[in-house]
Amino acid sequence: MSNHYFQFKQFTIHQDKCAMKVSTDACIQGAWAPIADDVVDVLDIGTGTGLLSLMLAQRNESIQIDAIELDADAAQQASENIKASPWADRINIIQGDVTQYAFTKQYDMIICNPPFFNNSLLGDDAQRNNVRHTISLSYDALLAVLQNVLKPTGYAAILLPTAEHDVWAQLLNKNGWGITQLLQVYPKEIGGYNRVISLCSSQPTTETNVDRLQIYKQGGGYTDVFTQLLQPFYLKL
Q1: Count of CB atoms within 10 A of residue 108's CB?
Q2: E strands, 30-113, where?
Q3: How far is CA 113 from CA 33, 51, 189, in A?
Q4: Which long-range contacts (CB under 8 A, 24 or more apart) does 37-41 make?
Q5: Interval 102-160: pLDDT, tens
Q6: How far apart are CA 204 and CA 197, in angstroms?
Q7: pTM given for the model
Q8: pLDDT over 90 for what percent of the chain?
Q9: Structural domain boundaries of the chain?
Q10: Which of 88, 85, 55 is nearest to 233 (CA)?
Q11: By C-alpha distance, which of 120, 112, 44 is closest to 82?
Q12: What separation in angstroms does the CA of 20 have from each of 3, 29, 86?
């Protein structure tokens, strides 16, 4: 498969202008993140190629999505991918800084695959550093955005590595927020989970429902659960 595009069943992701390419983690997030029955307005923070917006639009024909992206090249790439999809009329691409943008409404659902790394060595690629490290969007800044634009009854689906999720969860708890549900993603049967997708709410929670997803079987190949989750999207699955 070309590094410049990723072919799904109902849309194609061109990614030559984006520092971050299509990842299995993001595909799991787009396929798993629950869309409640009363969700209408969705915000995709740091949309990159537009992948998460396209997956959500495919899953639910009633939602309207604003997808914001700081990097101008990535925003242009996302716009091109959206225009070529069946859901161009329901996804609006915004090029701008989510921490500074003047939103005119609040959202029922927010989805975000934020910069992962807080204290890691930076590479030579400034664009890649921005999307991988918390330079352009710290966890505190992300929470401030959620506090500002998420409806009181809304929720946010956030994807992070395990260690970074622990930092995020502590920040939420400190600010009176809670996690209602989370998915622990295990690459293989042996070893721990390395990614967490959490559903965050402005209301504190006393109990969190925990799901588990294993990607690969012990002997190789995808697990049945992974296949069932991604089959509506992957062209060859």
Answers
A1: 19
A2: 41-45, 64-69, 91-95, 107-112
A3: 12, 11, 24
A4: 38/108, 38/153, 39/63, 39/108, 39/109, 40/64, 40/108, 41/66, 41/105, 41/106, 41/107, 41/108, 41/109
A5: 999 999 999 999 986 554 443 444 444 344 434 468 999 999 999 999 999 999 999 99
A6: 18
A7: 0.90
A8: 83
A9: 5-230
A10: 55
A11: 44
A12: 11, 15, 23
Here the tokens at position 39 are 């969700």
pLDDT value, residue 117: 54
**How many angstroms separate the CA atoms of 224 and 120, rounded?**
35
The candidate with the shortest Cα–Cα distance to 161, out of 209, 204, 119, is 119
Q: Name the nearest CA neighbour of 51 among 111, 108, 95.
A: 111
What's the whole-number average pLDDT of the chain? Answer: 91
Q: Which residue from 81, 53, 69 is spatially nearest to 127, judged by alpha carbons? A: 69
According to CATH, the topology of domain 5-230 is Rossmann fold (3.40.50)
